[in-house]
Every structure is written in structure tokens, then in C-alpha cells.
Amino acid sequence: MPRAVREQQMLDAAVQIFGQRGYMAASMDEIAELAGVSKPLVYLYLNSKEDLFTACIRREATALTRAVRAGVRTDLPADRQLWDGLRAFFQHTAEHPDAWSVLHLQARTHGEPFAAEAAAMRTEIVSFVTRLVAVAAREAHRDPDLPEHEVAGLAEALVGAAESLAAWANTTPGVTARQAASTLMNFAWSGLGALMRGRRWTPPPEGVV
Amino acid sequence: MPRAVREQQMLDAAVQIFGQRGYMAASMDEIAELAGVSKPLVYLYLNSKEDLFTACIRREATALTRAVRAGVRTDLPADRQLWDGLRAFFQHTAEHPDAWSVLHLQARTHGEPFAAEAAAMRTEIVSFVTRLVAVAAREAHRDPDLPEHEVAGLAEALVGAAESLAAWANTTPGVTARQAASTLMNFAWSGLGALMRGRRWTPPPEGVV
Amino acid sequence: MPRAVREQQMLDAAVQIFGQRGYMAASMDEIAELAGVSKPLVYLYLNSKEDLFTACIRREATALTRAVRAGVRTDLPADRQLWDGLRAFFQHTAEHPDAWSVLHLQARTHGEPFAAEAAAMRTEIVSFVTRLVAVAAREAHRDPDLPEHEVAGLAEALVGAAESLAAWANTTPGVTARQAASTLMNFAWSGLGALMRGRRWTPPPEGVV
Amino acid sequence: MPRAVREQQMLDAAVQIFGQRGYMAASMDEIAELAGVSKPLVYLYLNSKEDLFTACIRREATALTRAVRAGVRTDLPADRQLWDGLRAFFQHTAEHPDAWSVLHLQARTHGEPFAAEAAAMRTEIVSFVTRLVAVAAREAHRDPDLPEHEVAGLAEALVGAAESLAAWANTTPGVTARQAASTLMNFAWSGLGALMRGRRWTPPPEGVV
DNA sequence: AATGAATGAGTGTTCATTCAT
DNA sequence: AATGAATGAACACTCATTCAT
After folding, report:
1. Is A162 on the interface with B (CB under 8 A)?
2. Residue B70 falls inside a structural domain
3. CA separation for the pair A185, A190 (Å, rounded)
4. Confidence check: pLDDT of C35 > 70
5. Which residues belong to any copy of the HTH tetR-type domain (chains A, B, C, D) (predicted)?
């Protein structure tokens, strides 16, 4: 059996085990057994547990970003892009829960090198959303001086909300990924629109609390 | 030294080690040493590593919800309650990063029993936000039939956004916790208000993508 | 059982196993079993296989040099000192063959850190012999300008001869350690005496061979 | 490429790796890679790691004894034979340090079968020296009853001294192999001569120490 | 109330060795 | 004649956990 195929089988098994057990509780023995190969072969092809985990993160990060990108047509209006991106994101995470666990939980929980790997992917998604928010602001013609760090914060908030809703939709019976996407899209687009029209909420002066 | 005090010292040490090293990489040896007691004493008081971790989660979950509750006066308007809650949340997580790591990362990453423990706290916070959203809807007199699962989704999204911004504010230079809270509050309140006034975003018909 | 005692038991076992199997072929399992303790205890007390090996080398090097020193009275004439030193050396190596294997074979064969440890002991013995040769030269009043590096070379040769004879005496039936010492002493003292009296052997001019 | 040539390449690589890493730390992978062939080919030609190591020892033992024999003309006087043999020995070991490491360190350190192989070569060299010592005794016409085991011991001592000096000359700056040979030759020949003339050193009675 | 001493069970990792081709 | 693919067996090392005191 050619090496490339075997390697993908190993990564499949590793993502599953890492996603379900967690990085540290996952044993190379179990991964090898699930992949149907001997442990030395896993080491021959993937070097070490750390390298194997990194390979999992990279593969699944690429798969997720690719799925989102594939769902979005950049020639459509910003709202449509955001909607399509959300749909693709919710769908992919729902279809690959172990991969999502690896990216969203495990990678962030086990030290800098792995967290950085997952952060790179997240940064890419946040950049995508940041661009959409900026485009929406431009389309609204209203608030040209929306401060840069506020745009960044909005993108962060949107991504965080999506991550949270992905888990919620996956675990709450009676809630589909589409409904979750719809709820978030409604909320986000309304909020962005209102912000663009200058409707701001004024916090009370510091120290009053 | 009375048992209750010793126990708190042990929990302090455990939260710090668990938060920094992660649940599995944390060793009972290190925790006992940091607490300044012998390992058998840790076992005598807290039974096992799992129980110790559970105790950490419970204590920190209680501390966080208490901090948020303490920051909110339920006799004030909903927007003010949300603002105050966000401020308290951002402040507490910024001041107790190890505790936040335990609740937000470690507890969710290492199996059902722990995840459930952290989820209970999160549910409480989500309930609080849910109530605020409902109150806001009532105050707006406009959309009495905002579906229940949409309200729940909005609360989920808000909490997720807050979690995401907490990490962002803590790691991005030049962004204060207050700015993050402000950005989120603006966005959320505008979005909620617009939603209440019936401004919805209509998704394109399924299958077009 | 107190720690110090256990540690010596472990070192006893380790010297035996290292001496018989060699550093790499020795397994920590076997050492622990021979010492009558569990493997983790060996690690608790001696840290690692490398540290355990180093501890063996150090202990046995100290024991050997101590034995030689204890056999020699520095207020006696040089010939008597050399004789007593040789006797002590042959006796100690014959009585502790595993320790001698560790010092003479294993330590030199498995990398710099260990070799350096054993070399330090050997250097000490060579220095002792060097001093004796120098004293002998002074006592002979004859050859004050015996070049320094020749004295060093003689000491090296003597120590090498002793090492070689130690193994020979231990493995050749019918040859006692005392006889070996006697042979070497005769040879060495005659050679030194002749050298001191200026009897030199002239090598043929270079290139003739 | 003919088998015989390939085999020598493998042995070249093996001697280098065994000499530098040691028998156990040497890996068949590294040897095969250095030899520029695949691992199965090494097994096809040389059967096993043990057989490969034995082949290395045998080849290098033969090479060393051949070099010494080639340096000696048995029709010359005994002193000249000894001198020439020493020169050849020092030169060969200096020029093939990995081979010398294999013979002098590795082979003796890793179990009977290998040690016996190296001991056979050493025995041959010791025999050669023994013969020279006996010839020297005969030439001196003085001490016909030099006991046999003393002659053997002298030869052992001489060979040990040479081995020791070989290492010393190779690692001490400012000392050439020729100087080392000269020092040893001077010492040995003077000592032998004195012994032959009956100058003996009388040990003090036992038990006095 | 508190601990020094001790371990069973399991981990990641390596390596000599063998087939099928 | 030569190899890519694969493995069984073993090893160093760690850790949660428990006695005896």
C-alpha cells in the first residue's frame, strides 16, 4: 500500500482519537491500532506524537478554511458572502466534529506550538470576516471613520459567536446548523447595519458602578 | 493550620498548575510542592486528581458567576445590566487567567465529567443573558413572537463573542478590556434593537449555493 | 529502610549489571530487580540511567584510588611506594572485577561524559606514578635532565602495563596477583634504574625501515 | 558492482560507525546509509548485526597484525624487531582510529563472542613479543631459567604499555608516535637487559604492609 | 495531622529484522 | 541484485496512588 494512502489513514485515526480523548490521553498505541498499522510505522511516517498532532491540526485547518473559501463567491455582496461563509463553516464543523474538537479545543489547550498552528488558521478566518465588515462599512457610505481596532473587535466577536453557536447547534436537539446560521446572520447584519448608521450605545462614565 | 485553609491553598496551587500546564500535564507532585504540603495530604483532603480538578472547576465557576452577579444590579435597565455584566466578566477573567484557562480550556478538553461541570456554569451565564435579551424584547414592545430558540441562540452568540473578546483583549496590545466590552456592547445592543424593530436579514432560498 | 542504604544497594546492583552486560545492554529493569526494588525507586533516587552510570563510575573510581592510596606510605622510599601501590591495585581489581570492568571498559566506551569521569581517576593514578618516577630519578642522582614528557610517557607505560597485567592475572590460571605485581615491579624498576644510569637504546635513523 | 566490493564498502561504513558510536549505539540504518545501500542488502550479505560486527573485528584484526608483521624482518636482531613492530603498531593505530576503537574498546566491551575475537588477535601479538623476549634472553646468555610465566607476563606488560602509549600519543599534543615508541623501547630494552643480567627487585616479606 | 518510602501500570520511542516484489 | 514497506519486542522514563508510621 502506497505511503501517501497509509499516511492519510493514520491521520484519520489520529484526528478521531485526538478529538475524542484529547492530546495527552490519546495513546499512540490506540491510534496505530485504529489505523490498522503497527506503531513503528506511525513513527516512521510521522516522526513523533507532537509531529503527528501538528500534522492533524494542519490538515484539518486547511480542510476547514478550504471548505469556507469554497462556499463563498467573492463577487457577491458582502452580506451574501458572510451568509455563505457561515453556512459552510457550520456545515463543515457539524460534519467533522472530531476535527473541530482538535482545532477548537485540543490545539489551543496543549502548549504554544500547537496553539500557534490553530491560531494561524483562526487568524485567516478573522481576516476574512474583517474584510467583509470593512466592505459592509464602505457599502453603507455612512461611517467612514469606524476605528480600525473596532472593526477588528467586531470580527473577533463574530468569529467567537460562530464558534460558540457551532457547538450549540451540534449539541442542542431541535436546532439545525441552518437555524444557527440564520440567527447569527440576522443578529450580526442588523448590528452592523445599525452601527453603520451611527447608532451607538453610550457606556456610563467610569467609576459609577 | 485548619483544614479549610489548607484546602484553599491546595486549590490555589492546583488552579495555577492546571491552568498553566493543562490537566494531564499537571502532576500531583508539582501541585503538592507548590501548595507546600506533602502529596498524601492532598489525597487525604481531595481524594484523587479527578476530584481535585473537579473541585477547582467548581470553585472557580462559582467565583466567576459570583463576580458577574455582584457587578449587576437587577433593578437597573437591561442594557445597563448587560454592560455591567460584561465589564465584570472581562475584569474577572483578566485578573484570574489561570482560573479562566481551567474553566474555558481545560475543563472542556478533558472528558465529559469535567466538561459538564464547566457547562453548568456557562449555562447559568447564558440563562442570565437570555433573560436580559427577553427583557429587552419586552421593553421594545415590538416583536412579542421572537421565537424562543432564537432568543437562546442570541444569548449563546453573545456569550461566545464575549469569551472570544476576552482572550483577544488579553493578548492584543493596545486593546483594553473596557474597549472590548464597549465594542461588543455597541454591536450587541444595536443588533438586538434592530432585531426587535423587525429588521431581519432574509437568507436566499436553499439550494442556490 | 533509609535512603542512603537503599542507594548503595542500587549502586551495588548497577555496578554488577553494568560491568557484566555493558552500559547499553544493561536494562534498568534488571538493575532494579537485582537491587530488590521497583524501577521508579531507582529513578527517584538516581534520576536516570546516565546519572546512575556516572554514580557507579564515581563511586568505584573513588574506591579504587582510595584503596591504592591506603596501601602506600609516602614516607617510604619510592620503590617501596610503587610496589605497595601495585599490590593494592592488583588486589582491588581482582576483588572487584565488575567495578574494574565499569572503570576500565564500560566508562571508556560510551561517550565523553563517562570517559571523562574515568579519565579523571586514571589521571590521578598516572600523576602518582609520575611523581614516583621523578623521585626515583632524583634518588639516582644521575640523569637530572630526563625530559619531562619522557617521565610522563614512562608513567603512562607503567599504568598501561599494570592495567594489562591486572586482566591477565585475573584470567590466567596459575598466576596470582602477587606474581603479576612482582613481574611488573622487577621489570619496571630494572628499566627505570638502567635508564637513570644512562643506558639508552638508540633507534635506527628514520626512513631506513 | 561486484559483491566483494560492496561488502568492503559496508565493512568500511560499519567500522566507522561502530568505532565512533559504539556497538550498541550504532544502528543498521546508519551503517546502510553510509555505505550507500539499502538495509536488506546489508542483511543479505552479512546476515545480522552480530555477524557484521564480527566481520569488522576480523578484518581489522587481520589488517593490524598484517601491518605489524609487514614492519618486522625476522632476520634482524630482536631489539630491532621489537622497535620495528612498535613503530608499525603505533603508526597503524594512529592511521585507523576507528578500527583501533573497534578492536581495543568495542570488541572487548560487548560480550564474550566479540571479546574472544579480539583476544585472538591480541594473543598473536603477545606471542610475537613473547618470542622476542625469549630471544633476547637467549642472546644475553645470562638467565636461562627466567620462568616461563614471567616471560609471558613481561610480554603482557609490554603490549599493555604499548596500547596505553598509543592512546596517549594520539591525544597528547606535542608528543609524536615516534617519541612514544622511543620512550617505550628505551624503557623496555633497558628493563629486559637489566633483568637478563639478574638485577631483580626483592619484594618485602608478605604481611608487612 | 501528616509524611517518607515505595510501586503497578502505562507512555513515547527505537531498532534489528523480514517479506513481497 | 536489490528494495520499499512493515513489525515484534524491548527500553527509558513517568505518574497517580498507597502504606507504615
Report:
1. yes
2. yes
3. 8
4. yes
5. 4-64
Q: Which residues in chain C (170-189) have CB-CB distances under 8 A to chain D?
A: 172, 174-175, 178-189
Q: Which domain does D128 fall in, by range?
A: 53-196
Task: Name the minimum distance, in Å, from the CA of B55 to any CA of chain A.
Answer: 20
CB C82 within 8 A of CB C190: no
pLDDT tens-digit series, residues B86-104 = 999 999 999 999 999 999 9
Q: Judged by CB atoms within 8 Å, which residues 99-128 of B form the interface with A?
A: 105-106, 108-111
Domain presence at residue C35 = no
Task: Give the CATH number of the domain where residue A169 resides.
Answer: 1.10.357.10
Query: How far does the CA of residue B28 sit from the closest CA of chain A (Å)?
Result: 16
Cβ of B87 under 8 Å from any chain A Cβ?
yes
Write the residue in A24, A149, A157 that is nearest to B184 by C-beta. Answer: A157
* Residues of D in Cβ contact (< 8 Å) with C84: 209
Q: Taking CA C135 as the corner, what is the angle to CA C129 and CA C138, rounded to the nearest 5 degrees? A: 145
Low-confidence winner among A182-186, B58-62, B196-200 (lowest mean pLDDT): B196-200
Nucleotide nearest to C38 (CA to C1'): E7
- Residue A153: count of CB within 10 angstroms of its CB: 28
Q: Measured in angstroms, what separates residue B47's CA from nucleotide F21's C1'?
A: 20
Q: Contacts of strand F, CB cut-off 7 Å?
A: A 1-3, 6, 37-41, 44; B 25-29, 39-40, 43, 48-50; C 26-29, 39-40, 43, 48-50; D 1, 3, 6, 37-41, 44
Taking only the tens place, the pLDDT of each residue in A88-115 is 999 999 999 999 999 999 999 998 899 9
First to last CA, chain B: 68
Instruction: Look up the pTM and report it.
Output: 0.89
The burial class, CB within 10 Å (0-12 / 13-18 / 19+), for D180 is buried
C52 in contact with chain D, both atoms CB, cutoff 8 A: no
Binned average pLDDT, 10 residues per bin, chain D of 209 residues: 90 96 94 95 95 97 96 92 93 95 95 93 93 80 68 92 93 88 89 80 70
Q: How confident is the model at residue A145 (pLDDT cuts 50, 70, 90)?
A: low
Residue written as cell 478590556? B177
Number of helical H runs and strand E runs in chain B = 10, 0
Q: How far is B46 from chain A (nearest CA, A)?
A: 22
Inter-helix orientation angle A78-95/A148-171, to 10°: 40
Q: Is residue B13, in this structure, part of any structural domain at all?
A: no
CA dist B189 and D104 (Å) reads 83
Q: Using a threshold of 3 CB pairs under 8 A, tell whether chains C and A touch.
A: no
**Mean pLDDT lowest for which of A127-131, B139-143, C98-102?**
B139-143
Residue pair A154/B183 in contact by the 8 Å Cβ criterion: yes
**Closest C-alpha to B104, from C125, A104, A111:** A104
B22-78 per-position pLDDT tens digit: 999 999 999 999 999 999 999 999 999 999 999 999 999 999 999 999 999 999 988
**What cell was used for B144?**
412579542
pLDDT of D134 reads: 84
- Rounded to whole angstroms, the maximal C-alpha distance in chain A is 70
Radius of gyration over alpha carbons of chain D, in Å? 20
CA-closest candidate to residue A117, choices A175, A55, A166: A55
Q: Determine the distance between C51 (CA) and F9 (C1') in angstroms.
A: 26
Instruction: Report the distance from CA of residue D94 to the C1' of nucleotide F14 in Å, as an integer.
Output: 45
H or E segment at C141?
none
Sequence length of chain C is 209
Residue C45 in any domain: the answer is no
Total domains in the fold of chain C: 1
Residue in the structure block whose three cell numbers are 620495528:
D84
Q: How far is the CA of D1 from the C1' of F4 (A)?
A: 21
- Of the partner residues A153, A186, A209, the one whose CB lies closest to the CB of residue B165: A153
Give D4→chain C minimum CA distance, Å. Answer: 31
